[in-house]
Amino acid sequence: xxxxxxxxxxxxxxxxxxxxxxxxxxxxxxxxxxxxxxxxxxxxxxxxxxxxxxxxxxxxxxxxxxxxxxxxxxxxxxxxxxxxxxxxxxxxxxxxxxxxxxxxxxxxxxxxxxxxxxxxxxxxxxxxxxxxxxxxxxxxxxxxxxxxxxxxxxxxxxxxxxxxxxxxxxxxxxxxxxxxxxxxxxxxxxx
Length: 191
Hints:
UDP N-Acetylglucosamine Acyltransferase, domain 1, 4 helices
């Protein structure tokens, strides 16, 4: 049996080594792509949009991400239409990040698909794991929010500023706090 590569392990949701040459090359390409995006004149929205269409896995219509923007791969980010990502958005897209339509993300937000083991030996061995993140339609994520690996955020959800999302958030919810908890059901007035 042929052993799995670290990329194959990562895609299968297994523990992998992020010190792998193939994964380092992917991250290096993303760093270059982010630097190029962040170097585009801040008010040249069309050039920014065209760059995002080349850099990311999929981009809908009317998508804007403020500079600076950083990611780990780029091609694992899939964004619907009518998206706003404010300043200092970081998406660690080792695995896929799916973002629906009509989504707004506040400044200084981190979406991460990657985590590391509790074992110091494994961390010294450069081990990691990755799980996809899914964000539904009509979602507003406040500033300074952190969304951890494997999280699903439903449709018509508001995440309060400063929240750390450690568990899935159901449709039609206002969630806030550390860790984020649903504090109120919110009406969906577009259905």
